[in-house]
Write a structure and sequence with these properties.
It is built from eleven helices and nine strands. By secondary structure, it is α/β, with parallel strands linked by helices.
């Protein structure tokens, strides 16, 4: 972790969803001077227990040095920062905005340009993980923007995540995250295919996945998804619709840059098929689609298996 006085900057946080709450809580728990706003104020109230202040209006964050945004869309980022009732609606402004919202390169560039015209730096900082990963201290972050902005943000990003990668200026962090999520889709599709193949050949899913996770092909991700694939527990970590969106973003970038992506294209079709069949929980329900296509009836194995996080 970068060594710094974590109270030297006043922080603001906008967006307390599953991810935003867990990330903001890590900052509050180490004693950062943190003020929080959320559209539904009650969702932010529990952060008071860790020393955070919950504000009524976005403009109450205008005197913060650094503001984090973790909302739903690019339009939401624009609204909360410089909309009619946004942070800067009454004339104040932060020094730096760190945006971890999943948005397109185009939206990110537009927001960066608008903030620059107002004298505010921006760091794009998308993340890899979910609320459980954050609590386990294993969230990873990729950042792009001015080097000075990254240097200012690093001590706080180190608190939020286990590792921060700086990839350069502009929107490079956005394309890095898109590439990451394209890989997520391709890997889960391959993982469910080989898991169903192993089961149809006579293996228990948990036994096959145990071998895979102990091999050089195992990963944090395959371990993390093992309980879901073993016990058919598909509580939402990432929806099929969100995965489809990121695959579309990746394929759009590939088209623009003339990069062939055949496996990503096929995976996008499989995710669309999943959605078309009405699967709307976790993207790992691709296992059920694969089993149906393979003539395999899956049942929960009801085996206690680790997820590699605890």
């Amino acid at each position: 972790m970068a060594t710094a006085n974590l109270k030297q900057h006043k922080l603001g946080w906008i967006g307390i969803g599953r991810m935003g709450y867990a990330m903001a809580a890590r900052l509050a728990k180490v004693g950062c001077d943190l003020s929080v706003w959320n559209r539904t104020k009650s969702k932010a109230e529990p952060l008071k227990e860790y020393g955070a202040k919950v504000v009524d209006n976005l403009s109450d964050l205008a005197d913060c040095d650094i503001i984090f945004t973790m909302v739903s869309t690019g339009d939401d980022v624009k609204e909360v920062l410089y909309g009619p009732n946004g942070v800067m609606s009454k004339g104040g402004k932060p020094k730096l905005v760190i945006d971890s919202t999943s948005i397109s390169l185009e939206a990110s560039a537009e927001i960066r340009a608008e903030l620059a015209s107002r004298g505010v730096q921006m760091l794009a900082a998308p993340v890899s993980g979910n609320a459980k990963v954050i609590k386990a201290g294993k969230l990873t972050i990729v950042a792009s923007g001015p080097q000075a902005a990254f240097d200012m943000a690093l001590p706080y990003l180190d608190v939020v995540g286990a590792g921060v990668s700086y990839v350069g200026d502009g929107e490079l962090a956005r394309i890095a995250k898109i590439c990451h999520n394209v890989m997520l889709g391709v890997v889960i599709q391959n993982l469910v295919e080989i898991t169903v193949l192993a089961e149809k050949a006579g293996m228990k899913r948990h036994q096959f996945l145990d071998f895979l996770n102990k091999s050089v092909m195992g990963s944090t991700f395959t371990k993390y998804k093992t309980p879901a694939l073993t016990n058919l527990d598909f509580h939402v970590t990432f929806t099929p619709e969100l995965l489809r969106k990121d695959l579309d973003l990746g394929l759009s970038a590939a088209k623009e840059l003339e990069v062939p992506m055949p496996t990503a294209t096929i995976t996008r079709d499989m995710v669309q098929t999943l959605i078309g069949h009405g699967y709307d929980e976790d993207f790992s329900q691709l296992l059920l689609l694969q089993a149906k296509a393979s003539g395999v009836e899956l049942k929960p194995e009801n085996v206690e298996v680790g997820d590699g996080l605890s």
